[in-house]
Each structure stands twice: as structure tokens, then as C-alpha cells.
Amino acid sequence: MQSFRDEIDNSIRARITLLYIVSLEEESISEQLRALCRGSDLKLYRWDHADYFQLLAGDGGVPNAQDPLSALSAIENINDDGIFLLCDFHQCWQGQPRVMRKLKNVAWKLKFTRKTMVIISPVWKIPEELKDEVVMIEYHPPGLAEMDLIVSSLTSAPGIRVNLTPLGREKLLQAALGLSSNQARRIFARSIVSKGGLDERDIDLVNAGKKQIIRDSSALEFFSPVETIGDVGGLDALKHWLQTRKKAFSVEARDYGLPEPKGITLIGIPGTGKSLTAKVIAGLWKLPLVRLDLGALFGGLVGQSEENTRRALALAEIIAPCILWIDEIEKGLSFSGGDGGTSLRVFASILSWMQEKARPVFVVATANNISLLPPELMRKGRVDEVFFLDLPSYDDRKEIFEIHLRKRRRPIQNYDLDLLAKTSEGFVGAEIEQAVIDAMYKAFSDRDEPGRDFTTHDVALALQQQVPISRSHKEIIDELRKYLSEGRAQSASNRHALRESM
Ligand SMILES: Nc1ncnc2c1ncn2[C@@H]1O[C@H](COP(=O)(O)OP(=O)(O)OP(=O)(O)O)[C@@H](O)[C@H]1O
Ligand SMILES: [Mg+2]
Fold this sequence. Notes:
By secondary structure, this protein is an alpha/beta fold. It contains 20 helices and 15 strands. It has helices at residues 4-13, 26-38, 68-77, 97-109, 144-155, 166-176, 181-195, 202-214, 236-243, 251-256, 274-285, 294-297, 304-319, 340-356, 394-407, 417-423, 429-444, 456-464, 469-472, 474-485, and strands at residues 18-22, 43-48, 52-57, 82-87, 115-121, 135-137, 161-163, 197-199, 220-223, 263-268, 289-292, 322-326, 361-367, 385-389, 490-491. The strands form three sheets. The chain has a seven-stranded mixed beta sheet with strand order 9-11-12-13-10-14-15, sandwiched between helices. The protein is elongated. The protein starts with a helix and ends in an 11-residue tail after the last strand. Residues 232-235, 270-276, 366, 368, 400, 403, 429-430, 433 line the site of adenosine-5'-triphosphate.
């Protein structure tokens, strides 16, 4: 693959005079361009609306230009060969046809010189008039090998301790992926200064650094899940699928030739553990978990929702490898106040991103009303697998009771799990948990013996007093099960409840 620097270099040689880089990483891009200019006899200028012209590589003065038109004239007239980095220039041509025209003219005139303009902006916003003039260049943050070089260079001085196993080092480097070289260098350096070296504790530090980046987006939220795979009862097929992909994002898997998994869709009856599973994957795979809040994407102005979406997804790529959790994805289709067009467009852009994303972001989408969902979301290829979470089977329910009794620090031998599994036929995990909690309240506030421990009988009674959703909304379950019988989803459990009589 062509490196970023080669790509710029080749574009300059091909006399492409207007390049556009979509990135938040001005600093590290400037650094790369500076290195490129130093290796040739090019100067590097930077212009932005606040500080105007600055010289980043080469010697000499800078033109005085405080507005975009004068800046473009200065670029046109300057005698030096060089790269002109224009920051946030997409804001300069908005509603300014003269700026747009001038940019076009200058781009054309520069073809006969060795001058190149590079626009760097966090958003891809090119008006029709300029589309033919502009070439977009992708900037990928440093990869594993480059991160390794950064760590090596920072720790090469005598006296600096590196207390990492080969796997620990790989995890640390992987956690740092998505950061710019400068950001990574800053985080590592801070650790080295405070602890005299690097060790596995720095993985958390790096993740904390990434959280800082995420704070910029209101639509993304960092989760620190505490749930483990042991907290999920049943769903053995789904758990097995996840276990076999535990090392899916490691170098070992890449060397072996495995592709990175793209994502899964979890559909099913409310309360069967879809959200729980999403949280568990992050812990199991040791990847950061970020939740995309679909509601927060929708903004008032025209085009704003699409832009918010693009930004949030780009941020997810910055912190990749990570898990992007899109909970209740079908609800996203009903936001944006009656304007079905916007939510469909936002949806379409999420779907196409899922297919084209350049970085390892594993998407976990959950849904319980699939009739609202576009069929594309269910298509394998976009996601690796669509799992259907059915009502838990007898054995699953036993396991779920065990989990929730243990969670409340009760010895399971004190309870008749078989009786509870039998009594809870048709109940989902969330309802089972609720029955345990109801029983606890009842015993805790018992009239004759307040604070007594709760018994199997209390739980069984609580179950009988609840109408499970499988009974109150049988049609939802039938509808969802159609997906399974039509082969459009895989069962999350090898021993699902279809086989039991309902
Ligand atoms: N399979 C399970 N094993 C153990 N606990 C479960 C299971 N399913 C659900 N629970 C309990 O119920 C709670 C709620 O489940 P969760 O939010 O994951 O359901 P969901 O499928 O996402 O439901 P919804 O469709 O309503 O969002 C979980 O936090 C967990 O305590
Ligand atoms: Mg949920």
C-alpha cells in the first residue's frame, strides 16, 4: 500500500494542485508534510483564519494575508516552490462565491508551478463547482509497526524500564492504534516520566487518552462494562461464536490470513440479553466499548444529521480497534421528527460505512422490532452473523437463575433450580431477574419476619404474579421466530425453546 507521504509526493509530481485531506489530525499531518518538504527543496506554509500564514519548513518570511482571498492571491504570487496547508478552508468558501472562484483559478494556475495546496478539514464538504479540481487523500493514523517504532525510540535511552511480555507489548501498541503519532508519544512519554518505564498498566492510560478524544462527540459514549461472559446464561451458540473470535484482532490472526470480523446483529425478544451481550463482548475481547446514540445524531439544520453521523463514525475509527454498539437500531428510523428522509439517509450512511470502514470497528447492532429495519442490515456480508435470541430453554433458565442468585450472593444449593426453571417457562432473562428481585423485596419486608432470606417459594410466587411478554405479546415472538425458520438468522442457543412445548 502506498504510504501517505508517497501519495502526497506522487500527487505533487502529477501536478495535482489541490488536495483535500479529511482528518482531525492536523498536527501529525503537518509533521508528515514537514518531513516530505525537508527531503526536497519545498517550503511548507500553513494558513488558517486565526494565525494567517506561518512557515513550517524552509527559511524566509511569510506573506501577510488575513482573509481567504488575500491568502489565495499570496499563494498565486509567491515565488517559492512549496506546499500550502489550508486549515478549515471549507468554512471560507461557504456563501463566498468569490473565494470558491479564486480557489479554482489558483488551482489551475499552479499547474505550471511546483506549488500545491492541501486543504485539511475534519469534514468532507466540497461544493459541486470544485469537485473536478480536488483530489481527496486519505490519512490513516500510524499502524502497529509505526507505534512499535515510537515505543522503541522513547524507551531506547538507558535506565528506562520496559516491563512488557511480547503479548503485553502487542496489546499496548494495539490500544494506541488510532492515536496520531504525537498523541501516542505524549501518552507514552508521560508514563515514562512518572513511572520510569512502560508496563501493562499503560494500556489503561492509552484507553483513557482515547476517551478524551471521544468526549468531543455527543453521539458517542464510552462504556466501561463490568459484565463478563459468566453473567450471560444460555446463548451457548452465540457465546461459542464470540469465544472463537477472541483473538480476532491480533497480529497472529492477521498473519494467519484471517479477515477482521465486521460485526453482528442481535435480534430478539425484549429482555433476552442483547444489550448484555454487547457489553460482554468488549470485556471478552478486551476492546474499548463505544455506544452510538442514534438520537443524538439528529440535528436541526439541513445536512447536520448526516455530518454528525460522519463525524461520530470517523471518531469510532480513530479509537479502533473497538466495539461500536448501536443499541435498538430500529429506533433510529423514527427520530428526526417526521422527516423520514433524514433518518433513512443517516441509516444508509451507517450501512455503507459498515461495508467500507477502513479500520477494525466491530459493530454490534441490537434490535427487537425487525419489521422496521431495512433488509440490508440483516444481509450477511455487511455483518458476519445475525443472531436470533429466543426464549431461554429449560437448561438456559436454570443457568440464568444461578447467575442471578450468585449475583445476590446466595448459595445456589439453597434453591430448587429445577422447580424454578419449570415455573419460569416462557420467561426471558430480564423477567427471571425481576422475579428474583421481587422475591427479595417481599422477604426483606416480610410482615412476620422482616429481613428473612428469600426462598424458592418466594421466587416461584413472584413468577406466577408476572405475565411474561411471551404470553402478553405472543405475536411479537411469532414474528421474530419467522426470521429463524426462514434461515435469515442463526439461533443464539443450540438448545432454544422452540423445541419445548409452549
Ligand atoms: N441470558 C441472560 N442471562 C443472564 N441475565 C440476563 C439474560 N438476559 C437478560 N438478563 C438480565 O436482564 C437484564 C436486561 O437484559 P438486556 O437489557 O440485555 O435485554 P435486551 O435483550 O437488550 O432487551 P431489550 O430488547 O428490551 O433492550 C440484563 O442486564 C440481565 O441482568
Ligand atoms: Mg437492550
